[in-house]
Design brief:
This protein is mainly alpha-helical. Helix content is about 80%, strand content about 0%. The chain is built from 18 helices and no strands. The longest helix has about 50 residues. The C terminus is likely disordered.
Length: about 425
C-alpha cells in the first residue's frame, strides 16, 4: 500500500472513530444532535468555524485565481474579510445566540420564524438556504474529485465514484454523532488543512530552485503585473468594494456558520474566537496565494479553468513524497469540514421549519428525519456537481452573491427591536 493510501486510510478511520465517540456522548434530543447541547467551548468553536472556511475554494479556487491574477488575489479578500467576518459574528451571532436560547430555536430558519412570529419566514429561509448552499457544496465535491482521482491512480471517468465516496463518508459520520461529531472532526481537519498549506508553501521554493529562481520565471512569464493590482474587472474600485463586502458579510449568512455561533457555550468564548479569527484567516490565505504563484512559475501556460489543477500539479510533481502523502488528506479535510456542517444544518430544517407541527412527532423521530434529509441533500449535491459547468471560483461566487442578499434581514431581525413578534404583540 502506498504512503498516500496509508495516510488516507488513517484519516478515514480517525473521522469515523470521532463520529462513533460523539455518538456515544450524544443524547437523544434534537438539541443535542443538531446543536451539541449548545456546549461548544472556545477551541472547538473556533476550529468548527475556521474548519468550515477551509474549503476547496481556498485550496483549489484561490491558487487557480492567483495563477492568473498574481498577488492581487490576497488583497482582494484578506484585508477586509479578516476584520469583517469577526464583526458579523458580533453583530449577528451574539444576539442570535441569545434569542435562540430564549425561544428554543435549533435552526437558523426556526430562529427567525419564531422571533418574527411567522412560520412562512422559516419556510422561505429554508428554501433560500438550500438553493444557495447546494452550489457551494458542489464546489467541495469538485475539489475532492479533482484530487482523489489522480492520487488514487484513477482515470477521470472515475471522478463520480470518488465524489460519491466523499459524500457517503460525510453523511456517515455526521449521522453518527451530529454536531458534536462535525465539531470534533473539524478540530482534526482544520489543523491538518492549515498545517499542510503552511508546510507546502515553505517546502516548494526549495524544490523550484529558491525564491530568486521563482521570481525570475515569473518575471519572464507575467512580469510585474503579477505583483500589481489590476485596474479592471474584479479589481476596479467599485467591483473591489462590492466583492469585499460580499465576502465579509456572506460567511455569517451561511446557515452552517450561523448555527455554530448559536451553539457556543458562552459569549466570552465567542468573543475570543472573534479575536483569533483574523490571524487564522491570514495564515490560511497567504500560502494559498503563494501556491498560485509557485504554480505559475512551475507550470506556465495553463488557460482558463485549467488553472484549478495547479494545486494538484504542485503536490504530485514537486512536493516531497512524505508531504505529498498528506496532500490527499488535506483536500479531504477541506471538503469534509464544510460538507458535514452543511449536511447537518440543512438536515435539521425540515422537521423544525417545513413539516406541519405534530405533537406526536417525538425527539427521536426529528433526529431520524434530519438524518434522512441530509442523505437527500447529498444526492442533490452529487447531481448538481455532475451538471455544474463553471469553475470552483465561479460556483462559490454564485453562492456568495445569493447569501449576501440575506444579510440585511438577518441583521435587522436580531438587532432591530421592532422586528420582534413579542414587541409587536405588546403594541396590539
Amino acid at each position: 500500500m502506498t504512503p498516500s493510501l496509508l495516510v488516507l486510510a488513517a484519516y478515514v478511520l480517525a473521522v469515523l472513530a470521532l463520529g462513533a465517540i460523539a455518538a456515544r456522548r450524544a443524547g437523544r434530543t434534537p438539541e443535542d444532535y443538531f446543536l451539541a447541547g449548545s456546549g461548544l467551548g472556545t477551541l472547538v468553536l473556533f476550529m468548527a468555524l475556521f474548519g468550515t472556511n477551509c474549503t476547496p475554494f481556498v485550496l483549489v479556487g484561490i491558487p487557480g485565481r492567483a495563477y492568473h491574477d498574481g498577488a492581487a488575489v490576497f488583497g482582494l479578500n484578506v484585508p477586509v474579510i479578516a476584520l469583517g467576518i469577526p464583526l458579523t459574528f458580533w453583530a449577528i451571532g451574539l444576539p442570535a445566540r441569545r434569542i435562540a436560547r430564549r425561544l428554543g430555536a435549533l435552526t437558523p430558519a426556526e430562529l427567525y420564524s419564531k422571533h418574527l412570529g411567522s412560520r412562512a419566514v422559516g419556510v422561505a429561509l429554508f428554501l433560500v438556504f438550500t438553493v444557495y448552499t447546494l452550489p457551494y457544496m458542489a464546489t467541495a465535491v469538485e475539489g475532492a474529485a479533482r484530487s482523489l482521482t489522480p492520487a488514487l491512480g484513477l482515470s477521470p471517468e472515475h471522478a463520480p465514484h470518488a465524489g460519491a465516496a466523499v459524500l457517503g463518508l460525510a453523511v456517515l459520520y455526521t449521522s453518527m454523532g451530529g454536531m458534536r461529531a462535525t465539531a470534533w472532526t473539524n478540530v482534526l481537519q482544520g489543523g491538518l488543512f492549515l498545517g499542510f498549506m503552511l508546510a507546502l508553501a515553505f517546502v516548494l521554493p526549495g524544490r523550484l530552485g529558491g525564491l530568486d529562481a521563482i521570481f525570475e520565471r515569473l518575471e519572464q512569464d507575467g512580469g510585474a503585473q503579477l505583483f500589481e493590482r489590476p485596474e479592471t474587472g474584479l479589481y476596479s474600485g467599485a467591483a473591489l468594494a462590492s466583492w469585499s463586502l460580499v465576502i465579509s458579510l456572506t460567511v455569517i449568512c451561511f446557515p452552517h456558520m450561523l448555527v455554530r455561533v448559536v451553539a457556543a457555550r458562552s459569549e466570552a468564548g465567542l468573543r475570543r474566537v472573534c479575536v483569533l479569527y483574523p490571524l487564522a484567516l491570514m495564515a490560511l490565505w497567504l500560502p494559498a496565494v503563494l501556491l498560485g504563484l509557485f504554480g505559475r512559475a512551475a507550470f506556465p501556460g495553463l488557460e482558463g479553468r485549467e488553472s484549478d489543477r495547479v494545486f494538484n500539479l504542485l503536490v504530485e510533481d514537486l512536493a516531497p513524497a512524505w508531504l505529498g502523502a498528506f496532500g490527499l488528506v488535506a483536500v479531504l479535510a477541506a471538503v469534509m469540514s464544510t460538507l458535514d456542517a452543511q449536511l447537518l444544518t440543512l438536515g435539521s430544517m425540515p422537521s423544525r421549519d417545513v413539516l406541519p407541527e405534530n405533537p406526536k412527532r417525538g425527539p427521536e423521530k426529528e433526529v431520524r428525519i434530519g438524518r434522512a434529509f441530509a442523505a437527500v441533500v447529498a444526492v442533490a449535491v452529487f447531481v448538481l456537481w455532475r451538471l455544474a459547468p463553471s469553475s470552483i471560483f465561479a460556483q462559490a461566487a454564485v453562492a456568495f452573491s445569493g447569501y449576501v442578499t440575506l444579510f440585511p434581514l438577518l441583521l435587522l431581525g436580531v438587532r432591530w427591536r421592532r422586528t420582534s413578534a413579542e414587541i409587536g404583540r405588546a403594541h396590539v
